[in-house]
Amino acid sequence: MYKNTEWIDHVVDPDTGTVVQEGTPQSAVNFNNEEFGILDGHIALQMMMVAVNQLNGEAYPEIKDISMTNMLKYPFNNSAQTVSLSNTRSNANYQVDTYVTAANGDVGDIIVYDKLTNGFKIRYDGSASSATVRVAIRGGS
Description:
The protein has a three-stranded antiparallel β-sheet, with no helix packed on it. A three-stranded antiparallel β-sheet has the order 4-7-6, with no helix packed on it. The chain has 141 residues and is an alpha+beta fold. The protein has one helix and eight strands; from the N terminus they run ββαββββββ.
């Protein structure tokens, strides 16, 4: 369990240089306490998301590998692809996580857009002539 550190300002009298209040030490002990607290919060959030996904029947995302090509010279790009979902969702509020698995050049950002209950569009905005992107689709039910 995270133990909160109460930070106190170090105060010095500007006229005399006398320490009015000793501040909390900036030490490895105090900073590591913060790091462990952040880590604990992150782990707790991940565990909660797993539980929520299991309750929603979404513990296993739909995974697809999308191959995209760009035949234009940068800054122009025609890499857009339409991706069909295996199962139609009840709404378009699903999450699409993207991972570049292969690329011939700079992919830039991966953009997912025009989400519908049965699919979405995906493109990249970099100068790569081709890229393969793995997508994991969760939610929407």
